[in-house]
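Input record (one chain):
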Amino acid sequence: MKNKIFVIGIMAFMSFAFAKAQGGTRGIRVGFIDMEYILENVPEYQKASQQLEQKMGKWKQEIDAMSLEVQQMKDALQNERVLLTNELIEEKEEDIKIKEEELLNYQQKRFGPQGDFVLQKEQLIQPVQDQVFNEIRKIGSLKKYDYILDSSEAA
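The corresponding structure, as predicted from the sequence alone:
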């Protein structure tokens, strides 16, 4: 966070120096917004966030169910281990490994970098954020701000 503030300060200082070097008499105009507050008050964003939360909750329930199944398989093997032959133990351990890999793959499919969560977020939330961003740019242009900073990111 300190690095971010330092970089912003350096950028503002350099812009000020550049503006003075250009012979500009107008100082640098900086606008501050709170993007979190703005988005929280946009009904489309709230609706998109709720849809995303519902999907995410469903996926988490599925992951929890799969995790429980793996844990039950491990517990059952642990309880039966003394009664089983080495071949049966190895077979059950292999089944557990397969289930663990399925769980990991499912988690990646839903929440990985290329997962459904990221795609859904882009589809549902990004258009609303883009609309808000475009409006902020219009206002900034009309008010002749040199920079518009998001104060919610600095906190």
